[in-house]
Amino acid sequence: MKVVYGLIGILAIVAQTTGAAQELRRDTLCASVWFTAGSSAVDPAHEQNGEALDLLVDRLRRLQADPATRIDAVTIRGWASPDGSSRFNRQLAETRARRTADTLARRTALPEALFAFEGGGIDWQRLEEAVERSAELPDRDEVLHILRHTPVWVIRDGKVVDSRKRRLGMLRGGNPYHTLCERHFPSLRRADICAAFTTDLKSPPLEISENRPVKNGRGLPDAVQEATSAQGTASLPAGQREEAVLQEAGRVLEAAAAGQEAPRQVAATERTAAQEHATIQEHAAVQARTNPQAAADPTGGKGLLRAMRCPAPRIALRTNLLYDALLVPNIGLEYRFAKRWSVTVDYRHAWWSRNSRHRYWRCYGGDLLLRRYFGNRPFTGHHIGLFGTMLSYDFEFSGKGRQSDGFNLGGGFEYGYAFPVARRLRLDCSLGLGYVGGRYKEYEPMDDCYVHERTRRLRWFGPARAEIALVWLLGRNTKGGAR
Q: Which pTM value belongs to this model?
């Protein structure tokens, strides 16, 4: 009987200890600081860094003043964009992290032992994810292939022979790399901050009166966000508890670097749905006052970004190099009336003759085409279409000649592929199959006259159109956005 009572007492003590362990909650508070190209200075005026830092420092001070809360670690990881040398970017990323740590230590008066910083170098992973989400990026598939399958350094026989950055810069004359510099590199120049702290759930919750999201100019996620875990750590030894807190901070930093929000587990002490709705409404009201342009854009900044992009060209001049090689001058005008649809009008005219030697090389006519492109860039990629053609001709080379009786007409469908050879030049190769029909006259030269022999009917099924065209995109390439 005594043994039973003893077991009951031990179980009661274990239950009380476990309950006490579950009364602690581990949280992480995250933020990001943004930098200009090549700089490691923490500029409060850049991308609303001042507002983000003020909010983070205010929350850290409140946590520091709360007797029920203990700040365990503050981890900062710096990043850089690919522009510049790799050695410089490694040093720059570490300097950004160190200066951000110095700024927080000076403003919060936290012990220096709590801060840990490191440089992550070039954030290739975040660049790849940004490109994957950017459906309108020129040559997106080629850029993703380079980012995923080309090492940072290509080494053969112990020597560096190529690199990921070089291949990006060489792709399509550097056009995709230039677009990456303008749209995606600024989001890589940053320092991610993660503060890990432990809260006693028995104490009253810390009231934070100014809990609002901070947006930057690119419509990125909240600059300060809190990730909550309901797992208690009081039952762990002191060394393991600190290691668990640092692992949690590293996990949240990795999620922030990947452009994702840290996983959130719902705890029993979280607010009700009505309180969450009220907080969201308050956030929206504060954002409408502080950043009216972002609040008015329901796309989260995508509409503003779309308006800043360069307008895609809609008109292109083209000439068929095959006709040019046959001494048939030609010119075409292509108009893109939708994102992937265009209509083309071509005209050709040759009027060469040498009557003394009975040589005639005369033709004139034109084509009308309706095309559907499958590429991500205007006038680029695979395309299919329908065409109609009309042609009048007179060919004779010191022998029997053939002259069309009016216009010969035809039509069919075509397939082709267009690829860029320069910033505003495309090379378009296509082949059309269809039918060409009409009437033509056969004649022979006699003395100074031409004797008509017979009139024949032309009925041709097969290749009816061939083209290797040089395409020149028209329009001014303006760069949007204020500098």
A: 0.46
